[in-house]
Amino acid sequence: MVFAAALTDPGRKRALNEDAVSQLVTPYGGIFVVADGMGGHRTGEVASQMAVSQIVEVLKRSEPSPQGLLEAYEAANEAIYLAGQKPESRGMGTTCTALWLDMPYALIAHVGDSRAYLLRDGELMQLTQDHSWVADRVRQGLLTEEEARNHRWRNVITNALGSFPNARVDLVGLKVKPGDVFLLCSDGLSGVLEDKVLSEMILTNPPEPAVAKLIKLANDWGGPDNISAVVVTIGSQVAENPKPYALPLDANDGQPVHLQSGTDPEVLTTQIAEPPKKPGLWQRWGSVILLLLWFGLLGFVLFNQLGSGGAP
Ligand code: CA
Predict the structure, then answer these.
(1) 50, 155, 168, 178: least surrounded by Cβ within 10 Å?
(2) How many CA atoms are closer than 13 Å to the CA of 71, on its beta-carbon side?
(3) Using CA atoms, how far apart are residues 301 and 105, in angstroms rounded to an integer?
């Protein structure tokens, strides 16, 4: 059994809600989507709605498969990209994070900086890697998570549906266990509330009160952006539905596997998701030390030249 709830809210500072959410529970799982649109003149609203409705429509009609999920993303990307060619719609695009449950598997497709989390055995795991300027710096060890959260470029994303002629989609898969809880959200939630608050809310509440409380908390903290949350809880029974496709997920003890990386669509890797590394001291101070050394050397050379110039 699957229990789910989805909610979106404009927040306290924005007149429009450019986020969109959708949920569809099916006998063997369901389709759950969060999108966070961007672009002027209400085009962000259009882009996120297009992404969510197109993906749900395509998945509803197709036989479940990882390829089907990617094709749904490609179709949504093409539609938004074409709509964005009109002069009044320049810059239109959207993040899009989708969870497709086909028991006993969960597949997560992802573009942008909305997120998918998994709460399992009391541990919250971020399943998606943000496609954003600050997340790239965190992965390179140049910023901490905390610095990224408060950085003035925290909203700059490096990948969006509809921004490029071809979609660059990350695909993550895992084998579902009883009691697993998934959270999909926009950065209006994850950028405001800390992971331990997200974790506590979905651990102690069923989906419906969980999404309502999460949105209320983000608003209590100022609601600076549109806020979206989708919570999906797996019941005590996980159906074993026979599959027409093969996934490298059975041999991995339920741990997440990166099936495709959006940065390089040709590569199909099977790396286990690793948490980002904390920045090392050398990486943070290395360039400062190099600069100081360079000035030191320059000073030494100039001093010597002056000294030798004055000597007879
Ligand atoms: Ca946002």
Answers:
(1) 178
(2) 12
(3) 65
Cα 186 to ligand 1 centroid, rounded to whole Å: 6
Whether pLDDT at 89 is above 50: yes
**Residue 177 has what pLDDT?**
95
Interval between CA 167 and ligand 1 midpoint (Å): 20
| Amino acid identity at 151 | H
Show the tokens assigned to 205: 């509440």
| E strand segments, 10-103 | 19-26, 29-38, 93-102
Residue 215 to residue 221: CA distance in whole angstroms: 10
CA of 149 to the centre of ligand 1 (A): 13
**Residue 284, pLDDT score:** 61
The string of pLDDT tens digits covering residues 127-142 is: 999 999 999 999 999 9
Q: Which of 50, 59, 103 has the alpha carbon at shortest distance from 81?
A: 50
Torsion sign over Cα 119, 124, 125, 131: positive
* Start-to-end Cα distance in the chain: 93
pTM: 0.82
